[in-house]
Amino acid sequence: MLTVHHLNNSRSQRVLWMLEELGVEYELKRYQRDPRTMLAPPELRAVHPLGKSPVVTDGDLTLAESGAVIEYLVDRYGERRFSPPPGVSPERVRYNYWMHYAEGSAMPPLLLKLVARRLESAKMPFFARPIARRIAQTMQSSFIDPQLRLHLGYIDAELAKSTWFVGDTFSAADVQMSFPLETGSQRAGAKSLPHIRAFLERIHARPAYQRALERGGRYDFAS
């Protein structure tokens, strides 16, 4: 039985969505973040040495990294659905690009935004607070926010060209890109861009997405 080790409010939500699109039966094991640190619980290290989610187990296989997990699921269970045929077609090249872009390029400035915000509100001696806030604000204004505007503008322009990231056919690349755009909506105003907003409305309306929410539990990024 395929098992998903699912952490609330995390990248693993899109793994559940992919499985619901595929129609694959799976067991769900839930883990909750530490309410103080917001980190994954130590129990996940018993599944994978890094102790992060998503992780799937399928027979003797244990696999982490959401992009690798989604590609495995599509290759193993997709029956030629949700990805262009292997090769060097324009569609396959574009598919591979967005599968890697999601975590390699889109997520880093969003993570930096989260770190900067936490630095602004971190508990520390009173004399250090103004310095910490100034550093966080400088980071955001000089680098993080310009990078977010650059990436979100680029994504919005690409979505203006077609309904989905790989043309007019829904694919696993759309599942992979969902998390950066959902987190970008909360941290960087991504929904203010019309084509990103329309994309999010389309994916949130999909029955498989709704089923994944029901199974996975609380997921604040969908709001």
TrEMBL record:
Catalytic activities: RX + glutathione = an S-substituted glutathione + a halide anion + H(+)
Molecular-function annotations in GO: glutathione transferase activity; peroxidase activity
Domain annotation GST N-terminal: ranges: 1-81
Matches recorded under SUPFAM superfamilies: GST C-terminal domain-like (SSF47616), Thioredoxin-like (SSF52833)
The protein's enzyme class: transferase
Gene3D superfamilies linked to this entry: 1.20.1050.10, Glutaredoxin
GST C-terminal domain ranges (all copies): 88-223
Keywords: Transferase
Family, per entry: Belongs to the GST superfamily.
The protein's name in its UniProt record: glutathione transferase
Species for this entry: Caballeronia pedi
Taxonomy of the source species: Bacteria, Pseudomonadati, Pseudomonadota, Betaproteobacteria, Burkholderiales
